UniProtKB/TrEMBL annotation:
Annotated Pfam families: CHGN
Segments crossing the lipid bilayer: 7-32
Membrane-related topology note: Single-pass type II membrane protein
Subcellular location as annotated: Golgi apparatus, Golgi stack membrane
Family to which the UniProt record says this protein belongs: Belongs to the chondroitin N-acetylgalactosaminyltransferase family.
Lineage per the UniProt record: Eukaryota, Metazoa, Chordata, Craniata, Vertebrata
Main location: Golgi
Superkingdom, natural source: Eukaryota
GO molecular function terms noted in the UniProt entry: glucuronosyl-N-acetylgalactosaminyl-proteoglycan 4-beta-N-acetylgalactosaminyltransferase activity; glucuronylgalactosylproteoglycan 4-beta-N-acetylgalactosaminyltransferase activity; metal ion binding
GO CC term (a single one): Golgi cisterna membrane
Source organism per UniProt: Pteruthius melanotis
Protein name, per record: Hexosyltransferase
Enzyme Commission code: 2.4.1.-
Record carries keyword Coiled coil: yes
Protein encoded by which gene: Csgalnact1
C-alpha cells in the first residue's frame, strides 16, 4: 500500500515533466524552422553573376536538407517520448491492477479473477485471523467479543452507552446505513442465479429477513450472520458476511434445514411447584404447540412437592398429547450443575441440542429456532444474553393493577436489563458437552457452575456465540441468599438480587421517597398561601 501511495504521489510530477519536455521540443522545432532575420541571412550571389543561379539553388538545397534531417530527428525524439509515456501509463495501470481501490472491486469468491491476488490474499488473511470458520482459544471470559442482534426495525445491544437503551429504535444513522447495506448485499447474493437449478428461483426481499447477529473485532473486521426464511416451513437461508475494513466479502451461503432438529430442554428443580406450573404453561404454548420439535427433561431433587410437580407434568402430557418428556428424581441436596449434567448424560438417542434452562425462564418459539441456528456440533455453542425482568410491583406500583405476564415482557430500560453477567442459559450439542467434560460436580448450591462450563468452551476451539436475544426472559422472583453459600457465591447472589429489583432511577425514587413527599407537601402549602 505504501508503494501504491508513493507511485500515485509521483504520477503528477511525471506527467508534468513529460509535458514540459514536449513543449520544449516544439519550441526548438519552431525556432529551427523559422527563417533568420536580415542581419543573420547568409550572403547570396549577385543576380547578374554568372554563377548566381547555380549558387542560389545550391544554398537552398543545402538548407532544405538540413531542415529535413532536423525534422526527422525531432520526429524520432517525439516517437521516443510517446513510447516512454505509453510505457509509464502501462506501469500505472499495472500498479492500479495490483493494488486496486477497495471501492472499485467486487470481492466475490465465486469469481476470483475479478480480484487481484495481493488484495485477496490480504483480505483472506483477515478472515482467517477472525473467528469466522472456527473458534479461537481465549484466556478469560472477558476476552470473548459478544455479538449484537438486529432485525429490520431494531438493534439489540449490550454496549448501550449513556442512553442505556438495550434496544435502539430508530437505529443510529451510521449503524442503520451499515446494516441496510449488509441486508441488501445478502438479498442480492440470495437472488443471484446458481446456474444449476432449473426450477423457478424464489425471489428474496428484505421482508424475508428474520434476524441477524454481528460483532466487530477492531483489528480484523466485522462478522455478520443473517438468517432468512427458507423455501418451506422449518427451512432457513443463512448468509455469513465479513467486512475486513472494506467491502463485505461473502464467506458462506448455505441452506439450513432444521425440520428434524430436536431440542432437549433440561430443567433442574427442587420444590417450587407453583413456578413449575407457570413454566409448563409457557412450555406448552411455545414448545409443544408452536415449535413441536422439543423434549423436556426434569431433574428433581428430593421428594417435597415432587408429586405435585409430576402431576403438573402428567396433566400437560395428557391435555397436549405430549409424550416427549423424562422425569429423573435424585435423593440429594440441590445442585444445579449436577442436575443439568445428569439430564444431559441420561439422553440415549441421537446427538441432540441441549438447552439448559431454569424454571423461572420464559422463552418464545423464535428463541428455539435461534438456539438451533447458533449451534453446530464440533463448531459452535450458543450463550444467549437474556433480558432480566425487574420487580413488577416496583415497575407498575403507580398503576391500578399489574399487567399480565405477556404484557410485561417488553424490552425497555424501565422494565429490565440484559443479564450479561449470567451464563446459565445455554444451547449446545450433547456431543460437545460430553467432549468438554460437562459440569464441575464439586460445586454445590447456587452459582459458579455455569461460569466454569463457559470458561471451558472459551478455552477450546469451539466458537462461542454470545448475543442478546429478544425471545428469552428471566422472570422476576424474590431471591434468597442462604447462609450455607460460600463467600464468593453469597456475594454473587447479593449482586444479582440488587440488580433484579429495579433500575437506578426507580431505586432512587424509592430511596428518596420521603424527601420527594416532603417537597410536594411544601409546594402545596406554598400554593395555598399565594
Amino acid at each position: 500500500m505504501m508503494l501504491r501511495r508513493g507511485f500515485i504521489l509521483f504520477l503528477p510530477r511525471l506527467v508534468g515533466l513529460l509535458v514540459v519536455a514536449c513543449c520544449s521540443m516544439s519550441i526548438v522545432y519552431m525556432l529551427a524552422c523559422t527563417p533568420k532575420g536580415d542581419n543573420q541571412q547568409l550572403a547570396l550571389p549577385r543576380v547578374h553573376s554568372p554563377t548566381a543561379k547555380e549558387g542560389y539553388e545550391a544554398i537552398l538545397q543545402e538548407r532544405e536538407e538540413k531542415h529535413r534531417n532536423y525534422i526527422i530527428s525531432l520526429k524520432k525524439q517525439i516517437a521516443q517520448l510517446k513510447a516512454e509515456l505509453q510505457g509509464r501509463t502501462e506501469q500505472l495501470k499495472n500498479m492500479q491492477n495490483q493494488y486496486p481501490d477497495s471501492l472499485d472491486i467486487w470481492l466475490d469468491h465465486s469469481k476470483p479473477e475479478k480480484a487481484q491476488a495481493n488484495l485477496l490474499a490480504f483480505l483472506r488473511s483477515q478472515v482467517d485471523k477472525a473467528e469466522v470458520h472456527s473458534g479461537v482459544k481465549l484466556s478469560t471470559e472477558y476476552a470473548a467479543v459478544p455479538f449484537e442482534s438486529f432485525t429490520l426495525q431494531k438493534v439489540y445491544q449490550l454496549e448501550t452507552g449513556l442512553t442505556r437503551h438495550p434496544e435502539e429504535k430508530p437505529v443510529r444513522k451510521d449503524k442503520r446505513d451499515e446494516l441496510i447495506e449488509v441486508i441488501e448485499l445478502a438479498v442480492g447474493s440470495l437472488n443471484k442465479p446458481d446456474g444449476v437449478s432449473k426450477a423457478k428461483p424464489h425471489v428474496y426481499t428484505a421482508s424475508d429477513f428474520i434476524e441477524g447477529i454481528y460483532r466487530t473485532e477492531k483489528n480484523k473486521g466485522t462478522l455478520y450472520e443473517l438468517t432468512f426464511k427458507g423455501d418451506a416451513k422449518h427451512q432457513f437461508k443463512k448468509i455469513v458476511l465479513f467486512r475486513p475494513f472494506g467491502p463485505v466479502m461473502k464467506v458462506k451461503n448455505e441452506n439450513v434445514n432444521m425440520a428434524d432438529t430436536l431440542i432437549n430442554v433440561i430443567v433442574p428443580l427442587a420444590k417450587r411447584a407453583s413456578k413449575f406450573r407457570q413454566f409448563m404453561q409457557n412450555f406448552r404454548e411455545m414448545g409443544i404447540q408452536q415449535d413441536g420439535r422439543i423434549h423436556l427433561t426434569v431433574v428433581y431433587f428430593g421428594k417435597e412437592q415432587m408429586n405435585e410437580v409430576k402431576s403438573i407434568l402428567e396433566n400437560t402430557s395428557k391435555s397436549a398429547n405430549f409424550k416427549n418428556f423424562t422425569f429423573i428424581q435424585l435423593n440429594e441436596e440441590f445442585s444445579r450443575g449436577k442436575g443439568l449434567d445428569v439430564g444431559a448424560r441420561f439422553w440415549k438417542g441421537n446427538n441432540v441440542v441441549l438447552f439448559f434452562c431454569d424454571v423461572d425462564i420464559y422463552f418464545t418459539a423464535e428463541f428455539l429456532n435461534s438456539c438451533r441456528l447458533n449451534t453446530q456440533p464440533g463448531k459452535k455453542v450458543f450463550y444467549p444474553v437474556l433480558f432480566s425482568q425487574y420487580n413488577p410491583s416496583i415497575i407498575y406500583g403507580h398503576h391500578d393493577s399489574i399487567p399480565s405476564l405477556e404484557q410485561q415482557l417488553i424490552i425497555k430500560k424501565e422494565t429490565g436489563f440484559w443479564r450479561d453477567f449470567g451464563f446459565g442459559m445455554t444451547c449446545q450439542y450433547r456431543s460437545d458437552f460430553i467432549n468438554i467434560g460437562g459440569f464441575d460436580l464439586d460445586i454445590k448450591g447456587w452459582g459458579g457452575e455455569d461460569v466454569h462450563l463457559y470458561r471451558k468452551y472459551l478455552h477450546s476451539n469451539l466458537m462461542v456465540i454470545r448475543t442478546p436475544v429478544r425471545g428469552l426472559f428471566h422472570l422476576w422472583h424474590e431471591k434468597q441468599c442462604l447462609d450455607e453459600l460460600t463467600q464468593e457465591q453469597y456475594k454473587m447472589c447479593m449482586q444479582s438480587k440488587a440488580m433484579n429489583e429495579a433500575s437506578h432511577g426507580q431505586l432512587g425514587m424509592l430511596i428518596f421517597k420521603q424527601e420527594i413527599e416532603t417537597h410536594l407537601q411544601r409546594q402545596k402549602l406554598s400554593s395555598k398561601k399565594t
